[in-house]
Hints:
Bound molecules: zinc ion
CATH class: Mainly Alpha
Number of strands: 2
Number of helices: 6
Radius of gyration: 16 Å
CATH superfamily: dinb family like domain
Helix content: 40-55%
CATH architecture: Up-down Bundle
CATH topology: Four Helix Bundle (Hemerythrin (Met), subunit A)
Amino acid sequence: MSLYLDWDPPRPGWVCAECGFDYDATAPAAVGELLGGLVREYHARLLADVELLRAHPDPPTWSALEYACHVRDCLALYDWRIRKVLSERSPRLPQMRRDAVVVERAYNAAEPAAVAVEMADNRARLAALLGEVSGADWHRVGVREGEEVSVTWMAINTLHEAHHHLMDVDRALDRSGPSGPHAHGRTAS
Ligand SMILES: [Zn+2]
């Protein structure tokens, strides 16, 4: 089952009905720093008990660790895509195959501490890249699934992915944990 069957893609004027993310309130130049705050939130969750992190609340729903791995890989994917768009003329961008890579890359067998480090590294690389983007480069485009996507859109979309899936991580931990919603080290550090 795809998590994205009913995916409503971010776009100007859009507010996510689930996580409240506001597209228009997000400056693409601020995305790198905002991602840093979210990655710290993931790090706090990744300190939870590994069995809890790997638990599936119900069979089609990803575990907290699978969501974290997905976000880690989104950060790397969009770093790669944005570099490609900045260096080529309207390149084609291959699909992520979100649901296939969960199995292929054995997300649920990953070590949470390693995921935290990789997520931080990927975020730092993407933030450095976005820090170099200016002027018309924000409007450069690549072609994904037949549609043009700009650097601005890719930056904001990546931030939404991280924002939205943090909510999914908390839901997975809350639903899998025996001790209620505040038992998993929710404080940011
Ligand atoms: Zn959302």
